[in-house]
Structures are given as C-alpha cells and as structure tokens.
Amino acid sequence: MAWSAFQKDLASKTRKLNHILPEVMEITGYGHKSLNAKIGGKNADFMDINNEVILSPDHFVALWMKGLIQYLDNLQYKESSNIYELLQYIQEYPIVRDYAFTFLERTYMRNYTALSKKRPKVEEATMWIGQENANYGILVTPRFSNGNWENDVSEIRHFKKKYWTIGHVLETGIVVPFENEKIEFSDTDQYLKFFKNILVRGSGSQYELEIANNYCEFVRNSDQPEEIPLLIPEFRYGGLARKHQYRLDFTIIDPNTLNKYGFELSPWSTHGYLSGTKGKLQKDINAIALGNFEKEMRKLKDYFREFGVYALIYTDSDLANIENVFLDMKKYLNPYETQEQLKLHVLDDFLSYS
C-alpha cells in the first residue's frame, strides 16, 4: 500500500483504540498499560515472530488466536491464568474483542517490515532467464565485477522493494550477462512492454504470449502494480551454461514467503508428438514416447530438487481455455487473499474455546 495510506490507517486504529479504551478498562478493571501488556505481552509465546512470515494484520491476529489457545492447552491450571481471564473478556464482550484485535493489527503495522519480509539466501538471489542467445539476469543487488554480474551480498537484507515484484525490477533493472550493461525501466508500462515483446515473444509460443497479455492487463489494472509478483519467463535451470538442460515457461516467487511456483505449458505438438515413426515397430514408438515423458517428469523433479520450484503442468485440454490457466496463476499473484479467510476460520474456534 502507499505509505501515506498506511500511515492514515495506523493513525485511524490509534484513534479507535483511544475512543473505546475507557469502556474496555471499565469492563476488565485493567489499567491502560496493563491491558496492552496482557494483549501484546506474549506475542513471542503465541507465534514464532522471528521466523514466521506474517503477511497481513489478519494473519497476525489469526496466529495470535491460535497461539493463545495452544498456550492455554499446555497449562496445568489454565483457569487461574491471566491469559484465560483475558480470553473470557474477549469472548463475552464484543468491544473488548474489538480493542484486542485492533491493538494487534496496529502492532503488526508498526512492525510490518520485520514481520512480513523474508530475505532470499545468497544462492537464491540471482535468476538467469531467457533464450540461449537472448538471456538476461534478475538480481537483488546487482553489481558488475570481474567480467560478470553478482549480488552485493551485504546489501541484500537492506533491499527496500519487495523481492521478485514489479517494484523489484524497476529498482534493479535487468542485467546483460558478461556485459557491464543494464536494461532499466522508468515505469511499469515500459517494463511490461519489454516483458511481452522481448522476453516472451522470443519463445515463439502462442500460449506464452497469451499468458503474457493477460499478465500485462492484470498489472495495468492493479491499484498497486509494483506490489505484484513478477511473472518470470524462461527460468534457466543451468543458469548461464550454454548447453543448459531446461527452461521453465513461467515462474512466480511469492514476495513474502519466497515460495516458488512454476508453470509449464505442454501442448502435444511440442511436448508429445512423435514424427518419423513410419516403419518403426509399435514397441519402438512406445519406447520413444516413454523417453519423452520421463524427460518431462525429470525436468520438473530437477527444478524442485535444485530450486524448490513446485511446477504445474498444462496440457492441450487446459490450453484450450487460456483464461482459466491464467486464473490459476492469479492465485499466486495475490499472496494476501487467503489471510482474511484464515482469520475467520480460526475465530470460530477461538470464541468457542473453554
């Protein structure tokens, strides 16, 4: 979100807390500092705030509720616990619940960067993409050294943009391997034109181009285009090796968790069709087909083993409706959309706990 909107939302939550505080104090009998300490004092006990990637205020509240219940379950005499007393107030009085949840949401927002951002490992901070004679690199903190590009490792953790998003590539540009040259973009639209017309069109795949068109439209219609994950084309398994084994059609990296998702478009015409079978025995044809199938499966397994990329495969029946294929991809381009549902799911258990 824009920083000014973020600050306004934060200030709004503080005003709300101040407005309902007197009534909450009267109900609970807690003083102001005591109330806040009871709500926020055990965050580190209720969730792994050092390692958990927490995606939104709703996600933070959901983890807090779940952790509170688990904490009480581990107590021998939970009924005598101050935490159990707080839970009863939250369950019985909607205004106390509203105060507690708003307080937690504000806590998350005040610590947003520390709680929401996972940093890539050094070996995961470079992606080489593209065709054999038109390959490029996306790095986190690129610098040219000793004849090629590398990351300034000391600066990776200070990178301000969300990793592997439109904002990321607007900040860093795309590098040309073995040349002290970067392709830089002044705005989102300029990058999208490069993405579609240079990175994707070169593959010669009509399906990849249709996906690229859908992605460009999706980004242009977004209120926050720089927050959207990159749709990374032609991720090269062998990096800059000239005789690389594989390329993955598209890859999306969740900017919050850094989980990687691959998308392989596999029409029969390029991935299954067997030519030159005239005069061959059926068993020989079957052996060739089996070899092709095993090669495709080996590719996907290798990407998972080497890079942790979980890949989805789309065959002709899927590709007949490319809009549905892109709908699948959109789920990974909206990493926040599941957090409100998570909070609502946990809330039922939280309010009925006894």
**Helix-strand sequence:** HHHHHHHEEEEHEEHHEEEHHEHHH
Widest beta sheet: strand line-up: 7-8-9-10
Looking at how many chains there are and whether they match, the oligomeric state comes to: single chain
* Number of helices in the DSSP assignment: 15
Give the beta-strand count. 10
Computed over alpha carbons, the radius of gyration is 25 Å
Kindly estimate the percentage of residues that lie in beta strands according to DSSP. Answer: 5-15%
Q: What is the typical, i.e. mean, pLDDT? A: 85
What does the largest sheet look like?
A: 4 strands, mixed
Helix content: 40-55%
Distance between the termini: 38 Å
Unreliable runs, pLDDT <50, ≥5 residues?
none
In one word, what is the shape?
elongated
Q: Explain this structure to me?
A:
- The chain has 354 residues and is of the alpha+beta class.
- It has 2 domains: 3-116 and 338-352, no CATH class; 122-320, no CATH class.
- The protein is built from 15 helices and 10 strands.
- The chain has helices at 3-28, 32-40, 43-46, 57-73, 82-92, 94-110, 112-116, 166-172, 188-200, 206-220, 268-271, 282-307, 316-319, 322-333, 339-352; strands at 126-131, 134-139, 142-145, 148-151, 174-176, 181-183, 232-236, 247-253, 260-265, 309-314.
- A hairpin with a 6-residue loop joins strand 8 and strand 9 (260-265).
- Helix 9 (188-200) packs antiparallel against helix 10 (206-220).
- The two termini are 38 Å apart.
- It comes from Halobacillus faecis.
- This is Topoisomerase II.
